[in-house]
Amino acid sequence: MIARGTLLSFALWIVFLAFVRVAVIPPESCGIESEERIAEAAEAAAAWMTRNQNADGSYVYLYYNESDSAPAAYNEVRHAGVTMSLYQAAGRLGDRETLAAADDGLAWMEANLVRHDDWAALSASFRANRPPLGASALMVVSLAERRLATADTQYDGLMREVGRYLTALQRDDGGFHVAWQIDVDAPDTAGTSRFYPGEALWALALLHEAFPGEGWDSHARDALSFITTMRDDVEDVDFPPLADQWAAYGLAEMVEWGLTDQQIDYARDLAGRFGLLVRTASQREGSWYGSLLRGEDARGSGVGTWAEGLAGLWRVAAQDERLADIKDKTEERLHCIAGILTDRQTDAEEAADYASPGLVEGAWFHDGETRMDDQQHAFSGITYALDALAEHKMREPEETLE
Amino acid sequence: MTEILRAAVGIFATLAPFGLVPAFLAASPDDHEGDAARTGLTAFAAAGAALAVLLTAVVLTDPFLGLLDVSGENFQAGAAVIMAPLAVRLLWSGRSLGLSEVATGRPWLLPLAVPGLASPAALGAVVAYSGRYGEADAAAAVAIAILAAGALLCAGVFLRRALGGLAIGVLGRLSGALIVAVAVELAVDGVRSV
After folding, report:
1. Is A9 close to B85, i.e. CB distance below 8 A?
2. Nearest CA distance, B43 vs chain A (angstrom)
3. How far off is chain B from A227, nearest CA to CA, in Å?
4. Model ipTM?
5. pLDDT tens digits, one per residue of A59-106
6. pTM for the model
7. What is the pLDDT of residues A284-315, one digit of tens each?
8. Do residues A61 and A98 touch, judged by C-beta distance below 8 A?
9. Of A20, A271, A310, the CB nearest to B81
10. In the 8-state DSSP scheme, what is residue A230?
11. Which residues of B100-114 are buried (b: 16+ CB within 10 A; e: fewer)?
């Protein structure tokens, strides 16, 4: 005969385990599994960016699907980011129309350059006196992506010129001032940015890859040292490491140069941070109450950056034995987050219900709003996630556009 | 090897044999010298049954997690929470089972093997370590932990005579603290893993 105390104990355990199941380990879902469908989502995102470009080369920045309105706002950092993704798309998809759109975006950036001393910097007209580091860093990345996609060297001089703005802003500790104040001819020593250092790191690494022997690598190494040892403290990050996909891109570029054990440890921690974000997102998707437990969905750009970051770290794991143990799990998470992104993308059928389907199809909406970088980060993230699933270790396109 | 030992320590903590000693002794009276063999048999049977249950859990980890739609890394947080009641009970009373709970026909099985040794906390730990280190390492860890726990139960009579009930109670409470440490490690690793 079973004692009453034992029976009561069993009953209490069942109630407790039910609570744990619902509140602590809710079911996870990774959206769409088909890699073919995931690839189509990337193409639809690239098509959105190409289709929604203005005559001057800028892009539709914000769009609200319910009110069918696009407020007048812009950001040159995000412009450079979208152009970067379009060059990636042109190279990957072998698409001349996308290349033309990216070139129009590049022309917009050339028209918004500020030149000073021996450098050039990208800056929107309203803050031409204080060009943000991030915009120039992503412009360099765009130019590097164009070079990888086309093997065209006509912009090499411009790439170096904008690259010199990054080095002009680099501090002795490897970190960066956020801008040069042209009117007083001095850097802005007060401002800081969480993501500009990562953007500059990747740009400097790509400059070295394009122009080896010119010294860009020492700037990149200093930047990586700052990011992996000081940045999170300087920026007062509550739960380090900061989920910085740009740093992951930089690490992926620099892994063949040789990374220190400390940098590998940082990469491992960063992969863990992105992995946690993906697992939490999958819990959010897995049940009707997931969003109650895990909070609101992140917007497309945020989710896309997790895929970008994990994909960069997958390349590190694929090339450095010290991280080989996380490679398979990283692939699993990449498949998951790419599937979630694909599931959340607005398809043609859903877009047809809105006043401007061309502004809706292929986009990611968050509370009825899409911003151009939602498509940018999602496209890049999905594209490089598919690379990982295909064991494609090199980031550049296999064939260049002629 | 390090991974097997780490998992064995974690699983041993959740078996909490010191917390089980009072219930074990209540189920196998040892007032006479002739009862020593019976005590050993009870310990052996309980440990064997618990071993079977926990090894089954190791083998079923993947299908179980698949059924729940939960990744191994997320499950670690769940396993940590599942350990909380046992840890609290041990810290509070130094016992993982009440003495009244052993009044069953086959106490070596219920409650000594299940849920005494193979408690929800131990099952959670086994699934967590199996997901983290793989089935082979987890199975080896379970065997090591059960062997150690079984040996401690066998030595229960001796321990009570040598240390006294108070010392065993203190060791039971320390077991609770060890479970808290294991739970925290599992949760933190789950959060930091890809």
Report:
1. no
2. 19
3. 19
4. 0.87
5. 999 999 999 999 999 999 999 999 999 999 999 999 999 999 999 999
6. 0.92
7. 999 999 989 989 889 999 999 999 999 999 99
8. no
9. A20
10. I
11. ebbbbeebbbbbbbb
